[in-house]
Design goal:
The protein is α/β, with parallel strands linked by helices. Helices cover 31% and strands 18% of the residues. α4 packs across α9 and α7 packs across α11 (327-335). It is globular. Bound molecules: uridine 5'-triphosphate.
C-alpha cells in the first residue's frame, strides 16, 4: 500500500481497512479519500467506540440519580407573573432595537424521515402559497428587522451534503428580500460511522461513511466558521436558535430574548407542557443543581407517567428545541474549556457500505453506529439557565414525517389555526371546526404579521378589512 502519513496513522490506529481499495483508485479519488480521512480525529473515534459501543449493551445507561422536574417560568395565563413577562418583553424589544440579536437556524440534518430530495429548508409548507420553510423564516426575520429598526443577521448551518444546494436556493430566490450580506451559511462538521467492532466504515471504495455531527455540532461550527467573531464585531451577543423544520416558531420572540437578557442567562429554552405522558420529547429536569434535558428514550415509562399531588404530570416540561444562546457561552462550549464539552450520543443505523470486494451493501438491519451531539446537552454548562413556557400552538409544529404525526398535513393545519386565531382575535369573522381549523384556506405573510402583536398592528392599519374567504392572502 502507498506510503502516506495519513494512511500510516490509520494503520497504527487499527483502521487500515479505510484504505483497502486505495491502490485501485484514480489519483484524484485517492486525494479525495485522503482529504476525508484527514478530517477524522482518530483518537476521538477510538474513545467514542470504547465508551459508547464496546462497553455498552446498547442501553444508554443514563444516570437517573437525584432527577427531579425542572422549574420553569409559567405563562401569565397559567399562573405566571404578568408583570415579569411584560418586563421581559420590554427588555427583549430593547435588545432587538440595540441590534444585539441574530437568528440562527440549524439546517444540516439529513431529513431521512421526511424522505424529501433536497435541503429540508426548501420544502414547501404554507397552506396557500406553498412557501418553502426558508422563505417563512426569511420573511419573519425581515419583518422583525423592520419592526425593531435593525436588520437582523441570519446564520444558517448546513451540512456537506446540502451546503451548495442551500446557497443556490437562496441565490435563486434573491435571498427572499434579505440583504444577502447579512445571511451567513456555514457547514457543520461530520463524523465517521463505525461498525460494531469499531472499524471506520467506507460508503464506497473511495469514500468514508461520514455524516453530520448532530445539531450540537453547531456550537463548534459557529466558532470554527468565524460566525462568533463576526457577531462580536457587530455587537451581537444573543443568538436565537431554531430548527429548520418548524415554520410556526417565533424565531424572533422579544419576551424569550428578554428573559434571557434580564436573568443574565447563557442559555434559555422554551418548554411546552407535554400533550400526553408518553409524548416523544426531551424532558427538562434538574440533577445535582443543574438543568438537563433527558430524552424520552432514557426516561423510564413510570417516570414519564408519574403524576403530582394535583394529578398533573410530574415531568411535564417538554423540550421543543428552541433556545437563546449567549455568544461567549457558545465559544466556551466550542473550546471545551473547563470540561464544558458536549457529549456524543450513539445511534445504531443502517449504513450503506461496501463488502470485502468493494461491492455496494445495502444493509437490512443496523450494521453500524453514528455519533452525534445534541445542542440541549449544553444546558447543564450554562450559567443562570432559564426555561420559559410557551404555547405549542404559537411555536411548534415541525415537519418530521411524510405522513401522520408532525407531517406536512398537521403543520399546514396548525398554520391555518394560527391564522384563524389571529384573525378572530382582531374581530374578523372566521368559521372554524371544533379544533379551531378554519373552513377556508387562508394565509398570512410574515411580512404582514409574524406574531400576535405585528398581526394586530397590521390589521388595525388596513383601511378596509377583507372578508375571510377561501384564498385570502394577507401580504
Ligand atoms: P432531526 O433530529 O429532526 O434530524 O433534526 P434530521 O436529520 O433533520 O431528520 P431525520 O431524523 O433524518 O428524519 C432536528 C434539527 O436539527 C438539525 C436538522 O436540520 C433540524 O433542523 N440538524 C440535525 C442539524 O443541523 N445537524 C445534524 O447533524 C442533525
Amino acid at each position: 500500500m502507498a506510503h502516506h502519513p495519513i494512511i500510516e496513522a490509520f494503520q497504527r490506529a487499527g483502521q487500515a481497512q479505510v484504505f483497502a481499495f486505495f491502490d485501485r483508485l484514480a489519483p484524484d479519488a485517492q486525494q479525495r479519500l485522503l482529504a476525508e480521512a484527514a478530517e477524522v480525529d482518530l483518537a476521538e473515534v477510538e474513545r467514542l467506540y470504547r465508551s459508547l459501543v464496546a462497553k455498552s449493551d446498547g442501553a444508554a445507561g443514563v444516570n437517573l440519580a437525584g432527577l427531579a422536574p425542572a422549574p420553569y417560568e409559567k405563562r401569565p395565563e397559567h399562573g405566571g407573573d404578568a408583570a415579569d413577562w411584560a418586563r421581559a418583553k420590554a427588555a427583549g424589544e430593547a435588545a432587538l432595537r440595540a441590534g444585539r440579536v441574530a437568528a440562527f437556524t440549524v439546517a444540516g440534518g439529513q431529513g431521512t424521515r421526511l424522505g424529501y430530495d433536497g435541503p429540508k429548508g426548501t420544502f414547501p409548507v404554507t397552506p396557500l402559497r406553498q412557501k418553502p420553510l426558508f422563505q417563512v423564516f426569511a420573511e419573519k426575520i425581515r419583518a422583525a428587522g423592520v419592526r425593531y429598526g435593525r436588520p437582523l443577521p441570519w446564520f444558517i448551518m448546513t451540512s456537506h451534503a446540502n451546503h451548495a444546494a442551500t446557497e443556490a436556493f437562496f441565490a435563486a430566490n434573491a435571498h427572499f428580500g434579505l440583504d444577502r450580506a447579512r445571511v451567513h451559511f456555514f457547514r457543520q462538521g461530520r463524523m465517521p460511522a463505525v461498525d460494531f467492532n469499531g472499524q471506520i466504515m467506507l460508503e464506497t471504495p473511495g469514500s468514508l461513511a461520514l455524516s453530520p455531527d448532530g445539531h450540537g455540532g453547531s456550537l463548534r461550527a459557529l466558532d470554527r466558521s468565524g460566525a462568533l467573531d463576526l457577531m462580536k464585531r457587530e455587537g451581537i451577543d444573543t443568538l436565537s436558535y431554531f430548527q429548520v423544520d418548524n415554520p410556526l416558531v417565533r424565531c424572533i420572540d422579544p419576551a424569550f430574548i428578554g428573559w434571557h437578557v434580564l436573568r443574565g442567562s447563557e442559555m434559555t429554552s422554551k418548554m411546552v407542557p407535554k400533550a400526553y405522558a408518553e409524548e416523544k420529547v426531551g424532558h427538562f429536569c434538574m440533577q445535582d443543581g443543574k438543568s438537563v434535558v433527558v430524552e424520552y428514550s432514557d426516561l423510564p415509562m413510570a417516570m414519564q407517567r408519574e403524576t403530582d399531588a394535583g394529578g398533573g404530570l410530574r415531568y411535564i416540561a417538554g423540550s421543543i428545541a428552541i433556545h437563546v444562546l449567549d455568544r461567549e457561552f457558545v465559544r466556551r462550549m466550542a473550546a471545551g474549556a473547563e470540561g464544558a464539552a458536549l457529549p456524543f450520543h450513539r445511534a445504531d443505523k443502517k449504513i450503506p457500505t461496501v463488502d470485502a470486494a468493494g461491492g455496494a451493501v445495502k444493509p437490512a438491519k443496523a450494521n453500524g453506529v453514528k455519533f452525534e451531539m445534541f445542542v440541549f446537552d449544553a444546558l447543564p454548562f450554562a450559567r443562570n439557565p432559564v426555561i420559559i413556557e410557551t404555547l405549542r400552538a404559537d411555536d411548534f409544529s415541525p415537519v418530521k414525517n411524510a405522513e401522520g404525526l408532525d407531517s406536512p398535513q398537521t403543520c399546514r393545519d396548525d398554520q391555518l389555526r394560527q391564522f384563524a386565531r389571529w384573525l378572530t382575535a382582531n374581530g374578523a369573522a372566521v368559521a372554524t371546526d371544533p379544533s379551531g381549523r378554519p373552513a377556508v384556506t387562508v394565509e398570512v405573510s410574515p411580512l404582514f404579521g409574524y406574531d400576535e402583536d405585528s398581526f394586530a398592528d397590521a390589521w388595525k392599519n388596513l383601511p378596509v378589512k377583507p372578508a375571510v374567504t377561501d384564498g385570502l392572502y394577507l401580504a
